[in-house]
Amino acid sequence: MEAKRKKNSNPFDFLSEEIIFNILDHLNNDPFARKSFSLTCRNFYSIESRHRKILKPLCAETLSRTSARYPFITQLDLSLCPRANDDALSIVSSSSWKLTLRSINLSRSRLFTKVGLSSLTVNCRFLTEIDLSNGTEMGDAAAAAIAEAKNLERLWLARCKLITDLGIGRIAACCRKLKLLCLKWCIRVTDLGVELVALKCQEIRTLDLSYLPITEKCLPPVVKLQYLEDLVLEGCHGIDDDGLASVEYSCKSLKALNLSKCQNISHVGLSSLIKGADYLQQLILAYSFWVSADLSKCLHNFPMLQSIKFEDCPVARSGIKAIGNWHGSLKELSLSKCSGVTDEELSFVVQSHKELRKLDITCCRKITYASINSITKTCTSLTSLRMECCKLVSWEAFVLIGQQCQYLEELDITENEVNDEGLKSISRCSKLSSLKLGICSNITDEGLKHVGSTCSMLKELDLYRFSS
């Protein structure tokens, strides 16, 4: 009898829960594998329910069942539940999740009110992250409910257009642990609201003030934030060169700055804002700046600068040349839609920045085979190359990409002259996870066969308007 029991016993019963948890950790990115695992036996079904920490339900109506099935959820993503209402938030705040929940995403939900939000923030005492983006009907009463989350560290309020300085002030006064705050398109928040945040929330690391009706008046307390690393001022038209020149302080901890679509700021204002920011690593200057020698020179003395994006900016020859003379070595460069980029300038830049990992030359319509030849010879460690709509580049250039850029993970060659021979060579890039071939009229099934047989890590393949 004992021998029969041993024969019928499940060998997995001898595995400790810790070992099975480690197995499940390796299945986190494959929901189908996790489901199959949990259906193997009752023991696995029970263990999987205790192991799961992240949940993204397809509808709010299932929350009552899922809260019982998965009692230890820490991250709840309701972005696929547009009908999540006060009842749904009541279920969340009254279940076992009230002791485990750390993060919740309500960025696509529209039907809850300040009542449900208050229930959530009062009962889920350990919440550190809330995404309420697109809450266009939320006002200062909802902001008061948010302020009940005393341990909040990350808060997204993008496009919450009814929240005013009063609501933001309430949040700032109560949520002193905030490290990330996004106020993008909160168009009723002015200098006063931003100043209150900067004065009350001294631990802020990331601050997004995109498209706010603010001026330079709110910047002194902002740049004095001791730990501020990432500042986004995209579309802040009320800030200009004269205003930035009046800011006497510098943000020495700043690592990333976004001044895209700031039409009233030139290299003069930029220079004033980043003075003393010796740790600056990323700069986004899209859609507004003139890439001139003066602009390049003001960035000359930032040796830690690794990423710069000049999307849709007019480029002067002297400006590109000056970029090539920088002391530091860029890891990421975007010249997407920049008029004026030619083979000569681009070749000079890549020869000076051989450590580039990401390069975006989308719609640089003047470049040819010569540019790709320079890129593939010097930047052999590229992991991302975007070159949509570079129609003067011949098919032979794509052969070079496959021969030289073996570390590529992302390649966008939409609307180009690549053919099957080019694809055959590109298929040698075995690490590719994203390949975009839309409107490439010269490729056929033969070329795609090479990609399919060798690029085993491919997750995204764009064949828009492809006809074999």
TrEMBL record:
<protein>
    <recommendedName>
        <fullName>F-box/LRR-repeat protein 15-like leucin rich repeat domain-containing protein</fullName>
    </recommendedName>
</protein>
<dbReference type="InterPro" id="IPR032675">
    <property type="entry name" value="LRR_dom_sf"/>
</dbReference>
<dbReference type="InterPro" id="IPR006553">
    <property type="entry name" value="Leu-rich_rpt_Cys-con_subtyp"/>
</dbReference>
<dbReference type="InterPro" id="IPR036047">
    <property type="entry name" value="F-box-like_dom_sf"/>
</dbReference>
<feature type="domain" description="F-box/LRR-repeat protein 15-like leucin rich repeat">
    <location>
        <begin position="101"/>
        <end position="293"/>
    </location>
</feature>
<dbReference type="InterPro" id="IPR057207">
    <property type="entry name" value="FBXL15_LRR"/>
</dbReference>
<feature type="domain" description="F-box/LRR-repeat protein 15-like leucin rich repeat">
    <location>
        <begin position="320"/>
        <end position="463"/>
    </location>
</feature>
<dbReference type="Pfam" id="PF25372">
    <property type="entry name" value="DUF7885"/>
</dbReference>
